[in-house]
Amino acid sequence: MTSKIASQFSALAQATVRGNRALVFAALLGASSLVATPVAQAQTKIGYVNVERILHSSNTAKSAQSKIESEFRKRNDELERMANNLRAEIQKYDKDAPALSDSERVRRQRQLEDLESDLQRKEREFQEDVNLRRNELFSDIIDKADSAIQRIAESQGYDLIITDAVTVSPQVDLTDEVLEAIGG
């Protein structure tokens, strides 16, 4: 590297003697780029946070999951009762079908279809309500984690923190710090 700088400066000296301003300017640019190169090669500090782990193993996430389960337990039990009732009615129909008249068989088939579609509708509504509540509770956890990540990045001088990667070195994994910052 010193020989490049020396040759740049000797070219500068020769150009000065000749009075060629354009060559002097080019030589100065070349020399300044060689001097500025170490600054441009400064290391970027990168960190990684496993959001899935935060959403599954943090105390806040576990508490939110327990809250969801307790809020929806009664409806879940009701759906299970309806499903068991439908299965029992289907078995009863299968057992009685050979002895039923055509009109009675059609009536009971429609009744079973109505029970099944009612159960499916209630299961869909239940799942939508659970998902809405989960999103509501977990968005708070995500907001807390984002704030913690921002504080860690600022306090420790990170240039970039990523949340999705194929492979990660444990040296750049900040997940434990974020978990600690949001309360485990």
Protein model, in words:
The chain is mainly α and 184 residues long. The protein folds into two domains: 2-42; 47-181, 2-Layer Sandwich (Protein Binding, DinI Protein, Chain A). The protein has six helices and two strands, in the order ααβαααβα. The chain has helices at residues 2-18, 21-40, 51-57, 59-96, 102-156, 175-181; strands spanning 46-48, 160-162. Strands 1-2 form a two-stranded parallel ribbon. The protein starts with a helix and ends with a helix.
Please report the number of helical segments.
6
Large-scale geometry: rod-shaped
- Determine the CATH superfamily of the largest domain: Skp domain
> Any idea of the CATH class of the largest domain?
Alpha Beta
What kind of sheet is the major sheet? 2 strands, parallel
What tags apply to this protein structure?
184 residues, mainly alpha, Protein Binding, DinI Protein, Chain A, two-stranded parallel ribbon, 6 helices, 2 strands, rod-shaped, disordered N terminus
What's this model, at a glance?
This protein is mainly alpha-helical and 184 residues long.
Question: Helices, strands, pairings?
Answer:
Elements: H1 2-18, H2 21-40, E1 46-48, H3 51-57, H4 59-96, H5 102-156, E2 160-162, H6 175-181
